[in-house]
Prior knowledge:
Chain A has helices spanning about 15-30, 45-50, 75-80, 105-110, 145-165, 180-185, 200-215, 230-245, 255-265, 270, 275-290, and strands spanning about 1-5, 35, 55-65, 85-90, 95, 115-130, 135-140, 170-175, 190-195, 220-225, 250.
Amino acid sequence: MKEIVILSGKGGVGKSSLTAALAHLLTEKGTRLTLADTDVDAPNLHIVLGAEFDRSRAVAASDKAIIDYEKCSRCMRCVKACAFDSIIGDNEPIIISYSCEGCGVCALVCPEEAVSVQPMENGKINFVTSGAVRVVAGELGIGESSSGRLVDIVKREARQEASLNGSDLLLTDGPPGIGCPVIAALKGSDYAILVSEPTPSALSDLQRITEVVRGFNIPAGAVLNRNDMDEKSARITRDWLIRNEVPLLGEIPYDPCLPQALARGALAVNMYPDAPSSLALRNLHKVVEGLLD
Amino acid sequence: MNKKLHPEIIKHFHSTTFTTPIIGVTGGKGGVGKSTIAINLAAAFVANGKKVALIDADVDAPNDSLLLGIPLENPEPVTIMQPVFDSDKCTDCQKCVKACQMNSLFRSREKTITMMGECNGCEACYLVCPADAVGRGSHSVGTLYTTRRGDLTLYTGALQPGLAESALVVNAVKKAAFADADNFDIILVDTAPGTHCNVIGALKGAGHVLAVTEPTPLGAHDLELILSLLDMFAVQTSVVLNRSDLPGQQEKTEKTGRAGSVPVAAEIKLDKDLLAGYLQGTPVVELFPNSSAAKIFLDLADRLAAAWPDQKTQAKTKARQEQL
Lengths: 293, 324
Ligand code: SF4
Ligand code: SF4
Ligand code: SF4
Ligand code: SF4
């Protein structure tokens, strides 16, 4: 089984829509695949696919410090020791759970053994079926931390799901950015598809994500979405890709059919098979099929 | 998972050591135009005669300098503690290996401790070592830039690609800007997308937050998430509806806002002047000050300066904060 991850650095460049369309086109041609939604902060692949959850399971993605106030002598040593400013209070220590890294330093310095670090349920794994495609999606509780660890869990579950249903491909919709969840989504992948659009911001983010992907020695290619947005920026992006030897896998024009289909909970490749974006996606899907050999 | 937060945590979120107002620009979904709105709002405040600090706290993808067309200046490293092991002093007790929750420490065959994985600088290894064999080194996780242009100062945090410590860079960039807070009339914070701890860290102290969204099902979904986060922290919020004429579901987005009784502060249509500014790296407020897009930002800045939305809503939020 191959693992491909779709990343972008910048949010909102059409990563989820592209993932969904590719998944649909690949299954149509007989590829068996499982999708992993690792944008655990805002998982919305199921919305793009117009599908509902089959089931969900709570998971503990973080370890967090907890104070036993019966034992606590209010010495406030833990407040000073926490390198992440995650314990506050003037007379009584209070743990700011969302920013606690679970490092255990407070427990180490506590003279009363009043602090313990415990796993905390702060996320969910959602299972979704859309036609022949199974989706494993992570969802981090609002205001929680440790998205990287949740992404690790999602990928593990998705690999299991993929091997159970005999998938040829695990396609991962990655989170935006370049930080910890992105690195978790990237790890173990055979290939990274980097989605960008022709704007100066998107190019800057493409450069940063390329650096990360290169750092992990994972081969990558780019997709230029909404390629007709700005001719000059498109040219600059293409030049940059050539100079840095990142193959351009495909280009997709801006297409008003996309938001229209999305608003109806349908995929544009299904609803408007002859729309310019759908034709471009069909070409791209052949290129991706080639990556599977 | 809408846990109730401890009232002290909410109070802590709202506490600042200065009186300069802070306005946050956020939005659950990426690419909805947070940065465009942040930089134009900053330019609008400047045009209205204010001294402005703009904090680019999207440290994974900091783009405000590109959109403003001002190259980053005054780089300073953001460093965290990283242990240095003294093999002469080490007694091979391995307490540090056990203490490291990141599982980053290994004892190699030569009986020396080496760091293999990520280190978040928690100092647990330093604290447990009985032999004084762990020293405090430092290690750079990102870069902080301070760029001044007239009445606008841009504070940018950039995470080093390949590293995971976004939260530490967010805190560093905010600390730098807050240290100069008294020099500004207003502080704007542009956050990363999402609803996680980095976004909370970036918004800490904000008296008003603009939640930017677009009228698509994804926009509506992510707006709901960010609004419940802001509600947990009792933050005064309003919605900015970007690309409001996208073929989609404007009603749904508006309904989400209404359900959380959050007013729509501004509506921005797909606009060629705005796009031109975006591509060219100049705020539309400067490029075409008389355009309708520029007027929206100038007007929004006026209303925010006049403690928008109104005293009544503010009093209500305040009462709620005190009640908690
Ligand atoms: S576990 Fe670490 S991060 Fe959490 S409160 Fe204790 S010292 Fe702070
Ligand atoms: S170090 Fe222990 S005893 Fe002291 S305030 Fe913290 S929890 Fe309480
Ligand atoms: S500082 Fe903390 S994370 Fe870093 S090596 Fe020591 S124990 Fe591990
Ligand atoms: S805790 Fe100190 S003495 Fe023990 S193994 Fe680690 S460095 Fe060596």
